[in-house]
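Async update (no meeting this week)

Hi team, since we skipped the sync, here's where things stand on the single-chain job. The sequence we agreed to prioritize is pasted below, unchanged from the tracker. I ran it this morning and attached the output directly underneath so nobody has to dig for it. Comments welcome in thread, and please keep replies under the output.
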Amino acid sequence: MDDIILEILAELATADRLDATLVESIVRKHNRNRTGDQRHYAKKRLLPYYLKVKEFDHARWKSWNVDDETEKKLIRTLQVKPRRTASGVATITVITKPWPCASNCLYCPNDLRMPKSYLADEPACQRAERNYFDPYLQVVSRLRALTHMGHVTDKVELIVLGGTWSDYPEGYQIWFVKELFRALNEAGEPDGAEESAKERRRFYETAGLSNRKDDLIEFVAEKQQAIASGSLSYNQAMRQLYGENEGWMSVSARQNTGLEKLALQQTANEKAQHRAVGLVIETRPDTLSVGNLTLIRQLGCTKVQMGIQSLDERILAMNDRAIGTREIQTAFELLRLFGFKIHVHFMANLYGSTVDADKRDYKHLVTEGAYLPDEVKLYPCALVAGTGLCEHYKRGTWRPYTEEELLDVLVADAAATPPFVRISRMIRDISAHDIVAGNKKVNLRQMVERKADEEKVPIGEIRYREISTDEPAVDDLTLDIITYDTTVAREHFLQWIAPDGRIAGFLRLSLPDRSAVAERPELPVKPGEAMIREVHVYGKVAGLHKSGDGAQHLGLGRQLVERACNMAKEAGYRSVNVISSVGTREYYRSLGFTDNGLYQQRALD
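Output:
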């Protein structure tokens, strides 16, 4: 392995970055000399090996004469999956433990190894299961993996998935988030996180829990069969498996804490090596209230994922969603007034719908003032074994769209999506073998974009326009402002765009209607207070306090904030709140914001 690293370093002496083909050829050349049972070298192992030598064999690493600039070039060359941090942050997804669900949607999987709606073979779920669904262990292991892949992890967005967040006990919610912050804080300390992780694993083992796949399959097998036969409900099985199991009961007893301990970890994270610049939870619209959202904000949450699926009352009822548009509209209003980024899930091909109905339904979502989300997970319904939809499939009352029909819907939806909305994904990470019928192609998004390109259908949604890993031409960027009205606020979307329409950064400024705020005196905001709901600058992640020439070091975010404050002042607002994450509090303090309850605030003199 040393010889491969040294050869790559020699090549980098005269180049900024090596072509992937050249690196592969170097690896193949050295593999020719590997005989018998000797393990072949692979590019993905080069960077972890280099980092291991640097940390544990410093003398050997020094003999390689790698200076800071050369190391940067080496990491860029060996980095795996560079898009993982192209949006400006390193994303870490964690999954909550299996738990009963207050809903029972027709299409929703019933995997007893997972929280409702998730399947054990999904990548994030596999990681969670290996880590006993422990938030600390999940973060530590993911940080390690991202670092070995060559990604900077100073700025982290934590995404908490797993059924409905608000169905879990409040003490568990607080404990879970506290452990996320503790993992980030201790990961920056020598051996701190790894030692704590070993101790935590021993605790689960002592409690009698296993993280071995075969054991877990056996653990749920009998109850899973009972659900399939209809003799047991998902929630009944959950309570019997986890609520009455001594091991899980002893573990659950320790998964509880208060806001005071969480606050200590949050304060530490403000200056930690790995800072949480975003915290996302997912829930259902009908669980949201002022009290519920106040707690979510106290946790440090900045974005809420919300399962909508459809705005058609008939379709919602047919799919046993147990909610209607009234609850959905109320949820949108509360989330917006609180300042949260609103990320919704929307599905095509639900039972009872049609191609044309799906197009109309999605257009309502992205054009009507009662809705207008900031992000959308837009994906087709897939048939999974054990769901209520299976019976309709057998009867012929539901069928998956053909590929042509599905592309027709998704191209139309993508074209209808405004430039202030981001389509974050178009498929679920469900393994092909878990899908009985429906789309199994993982490159569905690329197929949609290719079809749109062939038919000259313009797409303006944010993800399609991100600068990704490219460096922006600063002098060519212009500030564009899109204004739109919702039922409770006038929204301004400020975006830095290149001549070709690509987006380098944006800010969401919300000017709440004074009467809408006054009518809800229990809100944590007051009439006359504007809200910055999001500031995001794209480009390669840069380390905290380090110089660089990427988009994140051009002052684009600072300029957006200043412009937003001026706009709010001109509109007659007396102050601006920002729904800052814990890890960005220091940044906003440097811009003149002061801590003010659930937000940071700047007076508009």
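Quick observations from my side:
The chain has a mean pLDDT of 89.
Residues 69 and 316 are 56 Å apart (CA to CA).
Reply here if anything looks off.
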